[in-house]
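REVIEWER CHECKLIST
Item 1: Sequence provided? yes
Item 2: Single chain? yes
Item 3: Sequence as submitted:
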Amino acid sequence: MQITGQQLADILEGRLVGDPDVLVSEPCKIEDGKPGGITFLANTKYEAYIYDTKASVVMVSEDFVPDKKVKATLIYVSNVYASLSTLLGKFNTKISLHEGIASTAVIDVTAKIDAGASIDDYVIIKPGVSIGKNSKIYGHVFIGDHVTVGENVRIFPGVRIYHNCVIGNNCVIHANTVIGSDGFGFAPVNEGQYDKIPQTGNVVIEDDVEVGSNTVIDRATLGSTIICKGVKLDNLIQIGHNVVVGSNTVIAAQTGVAGSTRIGSNCLIGGQVGFKGHIDIADGTMIQAQSGVSNSIRHKETKLYGSPAIEFQNYLKSYVYFKNFPDIVQQIRNLELEVNRLKLVSDNMK
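Item 4: Structure as written out by the authors:
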């Protein structure tokens, strides 16, 4: 793909300063820029690169004022990251997909597939499935009985969606994710054995959700495990049965959420965070990576860190003492020695 600087500026609704006819063929990093590349400057710590980059075009914020001459053509935009998202969408290399329904797909006659949907090779679609307009199902996907898939959904290769689950509109589900596998439910019986508790519920994923690769969302024991509108889940996340993740919450990789936990809306959750089951997390909660959350969080926009997680600023203060703990112990021992010495001197003076 080749496009001129002015055409890009028009797409990004930006203001071009430089050569409007410069040709751009690919995005690149500012430090590794090359002719024909377009890059961006959003963080001032990378500003030094803009003066030497070989990229042909650089997107910058409207308030950017260069300290010296910039060789590249500049496109001034109101929001660099939002414009970057638009830009990368234009250059994104997509996986090829069979238009319409591939001959190798196995589709039950009772399935209802909109004429505008695309079903790739070796997809399996079971009885009672419904797939909406413009949805794209890539190769080797399994969609179980009575699953509903909305409009404009993309389901990438190797995804497994178990029976009775619901996928809303405009969702993206990345490769090898499993939706609707059994929740982890077992009842202890005699002699340390366990009986499996049937998991009779489903998973409901609302509109505008994106789920990363190799994530697992368990079906509910009763009712639904619910991923609310606008949620973004990274790769390698475990969502237990009957969990609710509130709207527009973002969860990073390798996080595990135990059963029946309710996470509020607009939360920001770092990687490798662990949640105990049956707790409630308030809206807007922010949790640093590798924290362990074992109690409900009642106050909105709480910041947490540590395992078990405590209030963010308290953790940082405590950590200062913790990392200096050997020195603190030595100081206490020195004080003990000094106290004992002074006591001995005092006793000898009596």
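Item 5: Key structural point noted by reviewer: The helical segments are 5-12, 47-50, 80-91, 312-323, 325-349.
Item 6: Recommendation: ____
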